[in-house]
């Protein structure tokens, strides 16, 4: 049984690696915001979901919204100012972990009505959103939607969560890089151990596996991770992995 578990675990890690490599290769081709819009269409086919959305909120700029929803629904959403009552958007300011749309409170009549119209508009009856916080106070929300049963959606989210977290942060870093193209940004210097720690975590290993691979204790691994996170100005480990990869400090 233990042997079978290890085989299954290795297969999962290999699958994560393959998906991340394909994703990063395709994302690297994007040079403009228009390219990113096209990239989202590619991404929804890559993930085999109905829709993908990215919403960035900056302190000093207007929100950047890129979605694969129909133009009719997108325009209607903006015209009706649904963002003011949308629990998905409101929770982005309060949460740090991914959240399923069905875990949110849709108790108000306005929110329930908006959700019903969204489903009728082709958004899908399932949704998962990943809040992303950057080092400068920037906030973004990455969302995937699909039309499927609760059980199938749960299985999809559980098997893809690690990939989705990294995808969300990679996309955010790429968007920021394009928006701030031409600005001088210093690249921090990471130690070999710090780079190794982030590389293993980015490849899908958990902390115990990464520590074992590096032949160090989990406590020592945590020191390397926190040091790298501080140098990169990252809010969390996933963001640190994404920032390091986008800067060419590690390869996933």
Report what the structure shows:
- The protein is of the alpha+beta class.
- The chain folds into two domains: 2-179, 2-Layer Sandwich (Beta-Lactamase); 192-246, Arc Repressor Mutant, subunit A (Orthogonal Bundle).
- It is built from ten helices and five strands.
- It has helices spanning 2-28, 33-47, 71-79, 87-92, 109-120, 150-179, 192-202, 207-214, 218-232, 237-246; strands at residues 51-57, 64-67, 99-100, 126-133, 139-146.
- The chain has a five-stranded antiparallel sheet with strand order 2-1-5-4-3.
- Strand 4 (126-133) and strand 5 form a beta hairpin.
- Helix 7 (192-202) packs across helix 8 (207-214), helix 8 packs across helix 9 and helix 9 packs across helix 10 (237-246).
- The model is unreliable at 1-8 (pLDDT under 50).
The CATH superfamily of the largest domain appears as Transcription factor LuxR-like, autoinducer-binding domain
Q: Could you tell me the radius of gyration in angstroms?
A: 19 Å
What's the tally of helices? 10
Largest sheet: 5 strands, antiparallel
| CATH class division of the largest domain | Alpha Beta
CATH fold category name of the largest domain = Beta-Lactamase
What would the principal axes of the Cα set say about the shape?
Answer: globular
Average pLDDT, all residues: 84
Strand order of the largest sheet: 2-1-5-4-3
Number of strands: 5
Q: Structurally, how many domains make up the residues?
A: 2
Low-pLDDT ranges: 1-8
What is the chain-wise order of helices and strands? Answer: HHEEHHEHEEHHHHH
Structural class: alpha+beta
Architecture per CATH nomenclature, i.e. the level-2 architecture of the largest domain: 2-Layer Sandwich
Q: How much helix is in the residues? A: 55-70%
Task: State the separation between the terminal residues, measured CA to CA.
Answer: 30 Å
Give the amount of beta strand, in percent.
Answer: 5-15%
